[in-house]
Fold this sequence. Notes:
This protein is mainly beta. It has helices at residues 2-13, 249-258, and strands at residues 16-18, 20-21, 27-31, 38-41, 44-48, 58-60, 62-63, 66-67, 80-83, 88-93, 98-100, 112-120, 129-135, 139-144, 148-153, 162-167, 174-180, 184-189, 192-198, 214-216, 234-243, 260-261, 277-279. The strands form 5 sheets. Strands 4-5-6-11-20-13-14-15-16 form a 9-stranded antiparallel sheet, with no helix packed on it. Strands 3, 9, 10, 12, 17, 18, 19 and 21 form an 8-stranded antiparallel sheet that branches. A two-stranded antiparallel ribbon has the order 1-23. The longest helix has 12 residues, at 2-13. The radius of gyration is 19 Å and the shape is globular.
Amino acid sequence: xxxxxxxxxxxxxxxxxxxxxxxxxxxxxxxxxxxxxxxxxxxxxxxxxxxxxxxxxxxxxxxxxxxxxxxxxxxxxxxxxxxxxxxxxxxxxxxxxxxxxxxxxxxxxxxxxxxxxxxxxxxxxxxxxxxxxxxxxxxxxxxxxxxxxxxxxxxxxxxxxxxxxxxxxxxxxxxxxxxxxxxxxxxxxxxxxxxxxxxxxxxxxxxxxxxxxxxxxxxxxxxxxxxxxxxxxxxxxxxxxxxxxxxxxxxxxxxxxxxxxxxxxxxxxxxxxxxxxxxx
Length: 280
């Protein structure tokens, strides 16, 4: 007992920086790329565990959960684990990617928030988009037209891509987020509102037949589409989160300022799980 109290006293005396809560009832996907979430086969990364508790795990270089076959470019290997904005990140070299298979929790129709940290090597690879995260024929968060943050929501009253007013910076960390509350789309860059677009209606689960996979680092085409992956991304990505609610401006700013941690009881799936606590 004395030892336990001694540790508590030590922790109280050490200056610590506690990060914002990453998981709540509205978090449906969280990939923070920390060591404990990375599944390796030998020395190669094969899977990233979803920390939301919804088992929306990300698989490396797959289509429909199987080794990818319909490709425009052959993956050089798995994305590399590198130093990120907070802890680890993944580096995508313009050939590799992650796939998250569709699930009921990801088939969002009413409200959504997509967030990530990105450090692009370049602002274009020649295609119209560089994919940060897309659920094909449903919802998109991409870099478009040489570095503008862009969003596309299938089925809403303002179709097409909506762009930020300013561009992102190459070879620097940028926090990006997109929210939709059924009435408007808001684009955020580095914790600040960049653009607001009136948009009503519901997001289509899929405008391409059956619901599609989520692609991170490229637009993933599941085998039944019969088309190759495209719109690859080159650079680092960290702290990817999808929520089934339009998060507030204060919540987005907190994610930008403090990063993401795990410190809640999630639908009785996780028991007071503590993620990252950074010590100064």
